[in-house]
Amino acid sequence: xxxxETAKLAPGLKPHLKEPSENLSLALKATLxxxxxxxxxxxxxxxxxxxxxxxxxxxFPIGISPDPNLLATxxxxxxxxxxxLAALLSLDSLFRSDYDDGSLEQLLLAPQPLPALxxxxxxxxxxxxxxxxxxxxxxxxxxxxxxxxxxxxLAISLALGSAILSLIGAIGAALTVGLARGGVLLSLLVLPxxxxxxxxxxxxxxxxIAGDPVTAHLAILGALLAVALMLAxxxxxxxxRISING
Amino acid sequence: MWSxxxxxxxxxxFYRISAKLQPWFWxxxxxxxxxxxxxxxxFAPADYQQGNSFRIIYVHVPAAFLAQSxxxxxxxxxxxxxxxxxxxxxxxxxxxxxxxxxMTFVSLFSGAVWGVPTWGTWWMWDARLTSMLILLFLYxxxxxxxxxxxxxxxxxRAASVLAMVGxxxxxxxxxxxxxxxxxxxxxxxxxTSRPAMPMDMWLPLLMMVLGFYSFFIALTLxxxxxxxxxxxxxxxxxxxxxxxxx
Amino acid sequence: xxxxxxxxxxxxxxxxxxxWSSWVITLLLILGLVWHARFERRQLVESxxxxxxxxxxxxxxxxxxxxxxxDQGESS
Lengths: 246, 246, 76
Prior knowledge:
Chain A is an all-alpha fold. Chain A has nine helices and no strands. By secondary structure, chain C is mainly alpha-helical.
């Protein structure tokens, strides 16, 4: 079916009806914009993970030891685990408010492919959660006596890793959004799947500290991200449909 | 062939066919496990390095194999359910999960216990045990997710999605944990990567593995039949069956 | 036989607690799972039988009710 017939419109009005497929970019832009605006309005929610990150990093020296040498050896792992937990914290609200007010159902009814729209939402989540965590990590690294030469790798690995976390975590969030106390279950579902990302991400930072090349680690993270980008949107869409119809 | 698969999907037909198949698998399981146990415990020669503690292999390895195979079977059953809407597949997937978790636990327990005389410690973060531990969490996640939904259909579909996501991750997790372990530990002796085992050590192991697999099939058939009775309790064939049953 | 005596078999060359605990736990779990499956089946069959009995009783009551119509609030 080509362009629908132009109805008689008032002068000055242009018909902007398009085929749904052409509307995809429109829908994506609209979703991106809407989610960005909504999340930025709830600035507390955006800041929460960052504050949590800083708090957890503060707890460890207090609970373990302030000795910089000791902290330096465990810093990469601590930073990664704390960032991972902070990102996990923010996942529960990824779909929840939309679920509660019915806009998630509307999203499911849209003619545009759901995986694409879901990907747009996850992208916004990463921009406002994962990326800030990645940028904040080097600062916290200073507090943990993270050895020099690894700060950039820390940020890059966390940027890549948190994107993967957002994608995988969104699957868990979509599966549990309709459940009463889905938040706790979400952690159980998602953390085991995060472990490869943690291994290679923390491994990259440790390699940088040791002066070893980090390209392999970052390449693997990149590959995991590519796989997640290809597969996760479909899983997220399927999970959203299950949660809404349930 | 297709009509066979379709018939397999009918709970009533599956119930009848499994009634005939079950006894064989029970007999095979009992026979193989008893013979394997006696052979492995009494007749296989002691390992010159590990002494008699190596006999733990005869439960550790079969349990580990089963733990992984059952997860894959569960994911395949979930896929069959999602794609072809065969209810029996979902029933089988539902009953497989607890057995898989139990086998994972056995593998962890025996592996850890084996570590005491071998490494002098009750727990060792080696690649095998760590992967098994993560697998246990994956199982618990699937079981918890299935139980969290009130609608059975939603529960089935959610568990299927999670099982499929998990099964894709399992090789990734194994690879990354293997890599992580070799990086952080000197290449120590791993439990089953040994030079070729002599036949009289290896044959009882094969019998135990086959026996465990037979047990898995037999138990799954039995529990799936129970599940069929439970879910199809309103059907006439079930009522008639119950009348005749002792 | 890999062991000279029964005592030696039980002792497992000093590794007795490890070998036996592994085997016993495995055996207990396997037997437990089998027992549970059979118990489950027994429970199911019994509850289904009970339900069939209830329905039959209700049906008979319903038949009687058509012969002697009694004003009952609840339909059977």
